[in-house]
Amino acid sequence: MQTHDERLSFLRGAVPVIAPSMLKCDFGNLHRELELLHAADAAVLHLDVMDGHFVPNLSYGPMVIERLRERSETFFDAHLMISEPARYLDEYIRVGCDAITVHLEAVPDPRELLQRIRSSQIVAGVAVNPDTPFAEVEPFLNDMDLLLVMSVQPGFGGQKFLPHVVSKIQQAREQGPEGLVISVDGGIGKSTIAECARAGCSLFVAGSSVFDQPCYSEAMSELRQLAMEPQAG
User: Fold this and answer.
1) Is the dihedral of CA 187, 189, 194, 197 positive or negative?
2) Cα 156 to Cα 148, 186, 202, distances in angstroms
3) How far is CA 87 from CA 9, 56, 93, 107, 117, in A?
4) Catalytic residue among 51, 77, 98, 185
5) Cα angle: 45, vertex 48, 53; to 5 degrees
6) Element spanning 50, H or E
7) pLDDT tens for residues 132-180?
8) If you average pLDDT over every residue of the chain, what do you get?
9) What CATH topology corresponds to 4-232?
10) Is 92's pLDDT higher than 70?
11) Are 82 and 108 in contact (CB under 8 A)?
12) SS3 for 175?
């Protein structure tokens, strides 16, 4: 089993990372979707877990992730859009998630939960909704490994990118600790990824911009190239 530091080093080193959001995949043919993503050299898979309470929709839970893990060695980035994540945490640890992110809106003081995640050798993340002020997450930046900035309202795929969240990414990069992984989720595509990269994001969750394209490999390669352009400049 990998250690926490090994998992975190992987995320920090594989920059920029395009993480296909499994919310947009073909659930009727998951095995084939995994094959296509493996062929496209997807380094990270983003697993959107919805409970129908914290967000209005339901998606999937530990049982599906466990079956995916049996068929993939890819880094699993679990995004828990659920109420009471502490109650279910052990199940997501057990089924093989490499990173687990909980919402600040569900756990207003996430320090104890983040420590539980880290002590299980897993990357610990906090997600913030578009309208949550940066000041509310700032006190916990040193307690997390990953900050997930939502650029749409959580719970639905295919939404339009909300540009005001870019300033939150910038603040996190400027005020967060060195090595903090900053991720963005929602409306990430060819017209929005470079702006997020310039602001300081290195992990990009991409749904429609990968799964709605005829070739996942080409789609991810193009997104990765666009995310690298600000660095080259």
Assistant:
1) positive
2) 16, 9, 23
3) 28, 19, 12, 12, 13
4) 185
5) 170
6) strand 44-50
7) 999 999 999 999 999 999 999 876 666 789 999 999 999 999 999 999 9
8) 93
9) TIM Barrel (3.20.20)
10) yes
11) no
12) helix
CA-based nearest residue to 65, from 35, 89, 37, 94: 94
Catalytic residue flag (residue 48) = yes
φ/ψ of residue 189, rounded to 5 = -160, -165
Active site residue 145: no
Which of 39, 42, 38, 52 shows the shortest CA–CA distance to 154? Answer: 52
Residue of 48, 51, 77, 145 marked catalytic = 48
Distance CA 72, CA 201 (A): 26
Task: Give 124's contacts (C-beta < 8 A, 6+ positions apart).
Answer: 99, 100, 101, 113, 114, 115, 117, 118, 143, 144, 145, 146
Q: What are phi and psi of 67, to 5 degrees?
A: -70, -40
